[in-house]
Every structure is written in structure tokens, then in C-alpha cells.
Amino acid sequence: MHNTTFNLEVVSRFGVTGKPSKAPFIICVKWLLPPYGYMKVNVDVGAAGAPGQLTGGGVFRDRFGVFRGCFAASFGVGFAFEAELAAAFTALELASRNIGSRFG
User: Fold this and answer.
1) Are 91 and 41 spatial neighbours (Cβ–Cβ below 8 Å)?
2) What string of pLDDT tens digits covers the 104 residues of the chain?
3) pTM for the full model?
């Protein structure tokens, strides 16, 4: 059950009860700065079905964590792992084209 507080309040007025699911485990994640002379890119993708419409994007940050660029793209129809690969390749292509310019 993944609801907002508002949704839970509305259904409780109708006498509906639910048992929220517990998270299987929680991991603390921290973004680390890249080493001197490197850039870091984080990508995220989505697939509307399996197969489905694929989209994705990425954010470039320098060794100080300063935003250096981003992209968003549609990758056609396929599976989520194909979108992950397409986003990674897009990031590599953009980085290789922009070495020494705005990403530098």
C-alpha cells in the first residue's frame, strides 16, 4: 500500500483499513565527489511497460559538485535495461564531445 496521508484519511472515512507494507531494508546512500580531473554523471531512466516507451536523462557534476550540464531523451520502445544502456552511451557521447568546453 503506497498512499499519501490524504488518501489514507479519505479511505478511513469509508471504514477501509489497510496494512502498509514494510520496506525490505533501508540503505543510507551518499553521493561522493569524483576525484580531481574527473566528472561524474548520474543517469535515471523509465520504461512505460515491458516493452514500453523508454525515456531517460542524466546530470553532470564536477569535482566540487557543481552542475555542469544535463540531458533528457526518448529512446524509442524497448525494455528498461535498454534505456539504462542508451542513457549511459548518451552520457559518454556528450562527455566525449564536450571535453575541454563547458564540462571541463
Assistant:
1) yes
2) 455 777 777 777 887 776 767 777 878 888 888 888 888 999 999 999 889 999 999 999 988 989 999 999 999 999 999 999 999 999 999 988 876 555 54
3) 0.66
